[in-house]
Amino acid sequence: MAKKGKKSSRIQEKRAKRGIELSGGDECVKKKWLRLVGFVLTILLLFSGYYVYSMFSFLEDVSTTKFSSGDSPLTTATWEGKEQVNILFLGVDTRVKGEQPRSDTILLLSVNPVTKKASLFSVMRDTYLDIEGVGQAKINAAFANGGPELLISTVQDFLDIPIHYYVATDFQGFAKIIDAMGGVDVNVKEAMVHPDDGVYDIKLAAGQQHLSGQQALMYVRYRGTARADFDRTERQREMVKIVGQKMATPGMALKLPKILKEVTPYTESNIAAGDLYKLIALGLKADTTGMQTEQLPPVEFLSEEYNMYGEQVLWPDIAGTRQFVKEKIGATASTTAGTPPADGGSETAGPAGGGQDSGQEQPVAENPSDSGKQKGQVTGEYVNLRQMPGTENEVIGQVYAGQVLIIEETAGDWYYVRTPDGMYGYVTASLVQLL
């Protein structure tokens, strides 16, 4: 019995020792896992730090005035994060050294943070408007004469919506973005060939293919199709949609610091750090697959004409274009930057009347400052709107029978008026009946 008791005691001792060994093994495994988790967290913290650093470095570097003329103030609106946000993307042609470049591409992205609905518009660069300090000219002349500041002010006046942010980049910057993303897949509908300057020559075969940055630049710049700039702007909107969808993929988040680093030397923007995070968060939620893409002015609200210099231009129906944009974006309330234009000020326009049927009364949109001002109604079939009083001066548009004009001042036998489309000019008083 004593022998049996000793044997049982030894078994219990072994079991107890084995339990200690197992417990020690569990502790060892636990420590290994903790070290692994700590290592992963360290890597994540380092990456997050690098990510944040990249963001701040990018925003600091692109806030410098690469393209700004410095002649006029920036009139962008304030975005609080809950209302419609409008961002202007500008493609700039900087090939002519020593000259202020023109905006080769003007794209407007509008996102509704409530519905997550996104709309992308391309503004035709031949749209003929009244540009402050320049006069009647194609809209891309605004950038050449006053940088992004004047162009933003012109777009805000033209569309009657606030612009909150802008991003301007040149040809090289666009190509760098595409390359940093690893290229894009595009179906090129027809062969594109156009000799340029030896550096930006265009040569693309037709068919589905993977485009590099330089090839993607060829794709969005080509104007040799039957519909010329109309097709070109359509391809630009298509490219933005492709890039937006690719950027929304998880893998692209890892490449973002590299992309920002690549495009920094070629980019200018007014986006601040806090705004960028809000915009990225909104962009990830936005419905890019169902994004509407439209040209401005729409075909039904423009007419192709020749100006006094023999250039073919696009005269916009401003009232129709504004209504079109507002219907498409379904805008929520927003804070408009700047101050209202003074009497006779900077409302932009194409030809007065803008294709409206003659004989139909078109009441002018009134401002609070119009109180007490004289009004007049056009009595002739149509009346030329001139830049200065006198028949020898340039015709900048027409007003039609039945349209009501705000008379700003009288200059002899001429009235200086504001039209229903918001355009200012001189009309002969004999064909306007005072109301």
UniProtKB/TrEMBL annotation:
Span list, region Disordered: 332-377
Highest taxon, organism lineage: Bacteria
Pfam families associated with the record: LytR_cpsA_psr, SH3_3
Statement: the UniProt record of this protein carries the keyword Isomerase: no
Family matches, as InterPro entries: LytR/CpsA/Psr_CW_biosynth (IPR050922), LytR_CpsA_psr (IPR004474), SH3-like_bac-type (IPR003646)
Biased composition (Polar residues): 368-377
Signal peptide as annotated in the record: none
Key words, A-Z: Membrane, Transmembrane, Transmembrane helix
Statement: the UniProt record of this protein carries the keyword Methyltransferase: no
Biased segments, Low complexity type: 332-350
Gene3D superfamilies named in the record: LCP protein (3.40.630.190), SH3 Domains (2.30.30.40)
SH3b domain segment(s): 373-435
Transmembrane parts of this sequence: 33-53
Entry-linked PANTHER family: POLYISOPRENYL-TEICHOIC ACID--PEPTIDOGLYCAN TEICHOIC ACID TRANSFERASE TAGU
Similarity remark: Belongs to the LytR/CpsA/Psr (LCP) family.
NCBIfam families noted in UniProt: lytR_cpsA_psr
Name of the protein: SH3b domain-containing protein
Native source organism of the sequence: Tumebacillus avium
